[in-house]
Amino acid sequence: MLKNDLLLRAARGEETERTPVWLMRQAGRILPEYRALRGRLSGFKELVETPELAAEVTIQPVDALDVDAAIIFSDILVVPEAMGLTYEMVEARGPLFPETIKTAHDVERMRVADPEEHLGYVLEAIRVTKQALNGRVPLIGFAGAPWTILAYMVEGHGSKTFSKARRLLYAEPALAHQLLRKITDTTIAYLRAQVEAGANIVQVFDSWAGILPPAHYQEFSTRYIAEICQAIPEVPVTVFAKGAFWAVEEFAQLPCRTIGLDWNQDARTVRPLVGNKTLQGNLDPCALYGTPEQVRTATKQMLDQFGPHRHIANLGHGVYPDTNPDNVKVFIETVKEYSARQR
Ligand code: CP3
């Protein structure tokens, strides 16, 4: 039994006494206690792959920030690794795949991963976290959308253009679909296993949605996201596709409960297009660089745009690492106070 189930009730479209709030990337470098623990370890992967440590940093923001949900500490790139493509997390630079997908043979070599066998450390981290949370708040599970995972597997690292990945969609669409098929099958099994391990809601991150033309997005992304939503009927699913403002009416047709908005979108425009879905978002993470008074004003404006119901307050993308945690607290407290008064 959950002591605080605001997030789940809002996701299901039920009325709540105030708007729930959490932050994408809340576990991590904004918190001094995270940096202290991280500094004692060999690297990011040790943290991700040690369930007790992953559980500890998952719960840190619940203690420090009093958010209404925990998100399991992991990364979307554990999926390509489970399929056979190892990643490294290079200090101050980000992810790197020493080998990438270039040919049909490379796609052939990728396996549809078995969650217990290849991602057991994440599932164990979820179990340990659930035990330690003891029902304080819901736990969010997550995975990358197949297109975003393909983008990293083909490109090998972050990129402004992901031109190798986008090239594949034009040059070898059938091969792209073969790889997307394997990623989708892995992701469905993985998210189902997360739910079985205790995740109360799951989020699909399509971080690189916005670099595709709309027609390609429909062909190479939405249809696989739809399959994933369909395969997880037990818990609410949130779809967050950064930059895909043109896909919002398509998302309204998905069998998901919640649609995440980035800060380029205005909730007043989106709301009439999405029927009874819940919306999540979408304060610009840069708004948290202002003074506390500016943070309060921007947060209230955002809450006015969404209205009091069917909203989960969040940022429009992950919190930036150099954000002052005190301003994050102002954001969270403002959501709690102001949204209660909106009712
Ligand atoms: O608090 C949480 O949200 C849970 C943890 C989480 C991480 N990554 C930890 C992490 C989540 C949900 C992710 C998702 C993720 N990872 C996405 C989708 C969300 C988004 O931002 O669009 C993507 C694209 C990645 C891939 C990735 N991982 C990149 C590009 C980087 C380097 C840049 C960066 O943001 O740090 C990472 C590394 C990473 N993932 C860190 C953390 C805490 C930093 C590593 C460190 O502490 O050294």
From TrEMBL:
It comes from the Bacteria. GO terms for cellular component: cytosol. Keywords: Cytoplasm, Decarboxylase, Lyase, Porphyrin biosynthesis. The record marks D75 as: Transition state stabilizer. It comes from Hymenobacter mucosus. Its EC number is 4.1.1.37. Pathway: Porphyrin-containing compound metabolism; protoporphyrin-IX biosynthesis; coproporphyrinogen-III from 5-aminolevulinate: step 4/4. PANTHER family: METHYLTETRAHYDROFOLATE:HOMOCYSTEINE METHYLTRANSFERASE RELATED, UROPORPHYRINOGEN DECARBOXYLASE. HAMAP family: URO_D. This is Uroporphyrinogen decarboxylase.
